[in-house]
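Data availability (excerpt). The following record was deposited with the supplementary files.
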Amino acid sequence: MDHQKHPAESLLYKSKSAWYNVDNTLMSSVISFNESYKLFLNQAKTERETAVQITQLAQENGFAPINSVNKLQPGSKVMLNYRDKAVMLAVIGANPIDQGCNIIGSHTDAPRLDLKPNPLYEDQNLAMLKTHYYGGIKKYQWLGMPLALHGVICFKNGSSVNIMIGEESNDPVFTITDLLPHLAKEQMGKKMSEAISGEGLNIVVGGIPINEDEKLKNPVKLAVLDKLNQQFGITEEDFISAEFEVVPAWPARDVGLDSSMVGSYGQDDRVCVYTSLKALLDINTPTFTSVAMFMDKEEIGSSGNTGMAARTFENFMAELIARILPGYSELALRRCLATSKALSADVTAGLDPNYESVMEKMNASRLGYGVSITKYTGSRGKVHANDAHAEFLGYIRHLLNQNNIPWQTGELGKVDEGGGGTIAYLMAVYGMDVLDCGVPILGMHSPFEVASKVDIFSAYRAYKAFFLSQ
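Predicted structure:
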């Protein structure tokens, strides 16, 4: 006998895969959007490259540097690229700016390996580079894989050169070797966190000695330096004023026989960077001024002058107000920030069938169920969480439902399992309402993170609806 639906069943909260509502027309949009997204990922493997891509796309869509504009009016589009690491964009709305803005914040940096200031040495006739890991990584994941070198060197005369080695098919790649299992009895008896030390993440970069004098000390190191000097004009001292990042050498790829997912390095948080960027580029004159900020240093606490903890964002907002209102007022800035609505656009953990035990299934985000809204992040007692107010959650729920955008809710794992934070609590300092809203991914902080294409497209739609909300 068929189950007769009880009236009370309509009261249940039910979530389902967003794929069930994807028809042929929508599928075409999902696929097209993600193809562009993969190209973006391949061109934005560092925070500098991400800032460059954001700036170029903004310029192509009519955004002008804010310092080149004296007066702003509804529909004006301006941007600030701060030190090629943090970028802020704004589309001026019809309402007075001191009534608040719609703001979305994401971050441009990703976990990686950085070269030390004095990195190059020789050992056992191999040239090696010393690294210092950046952000929360599992060190063992970076062994035995092809790596690329991205960075910039600033010379003492003030000039600089960008370097990228390992991305082209005819480029050499680099690697951190792993210990063969035949001799790894001691290593494999250690905890995973201790099997490889931070000081053990050294990269192989050369093996041929310089062909001059067999009595030379460190001839392979000298050969590498000589090659770098011939190609880029580098001396060893120049490493001190350089920023080199070591990242996986593979491109973004489709994942699954059905190509339903994107696999790539750096999707935390460039998936939210790209979706919020595209959302802003696709609007003209919103009701409220729409602001997208793409901040650096989130993975190490949002520190430094390009991180959310700095006053860079606040300064940008002050510049907007100075160009919109007849006379600049600090009070107008405070009113604008305090009455603004904001989304902290950052990824969350998806429920992984291989690691279900760390998640509480009733409150876990799933791949393919749409964009995820997260009331709080933090760790073990909501430490460093924003913990959004119920009123704002209700507002965002209504907005997403009104626009038929697939969404879900979740938290970052079981209460005592660990946790993590976003820039939400730093945005909330200004008094604005803030909610975490982003894409669930598998393998967060690994060299190959996985996200669902339908969730990525849902995030774009959610961010666009938020920018246009009244």
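Summary of structural features: The two ends are 48 Å apart (CA to CA).
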